[in-house]
Amino acid sequence: MRSIMRNFRVGGRPDKWKPSQRAILTGGTTLVKSGQLKRSINPSATRESVIIGTNIEYARKHHYGIGVIARPFMVIQEEDDVEILEIYSNHIGLLK
Question: Considering the entire predicted model, what is its pTM?
Answer without folding.
Answer: 0.78
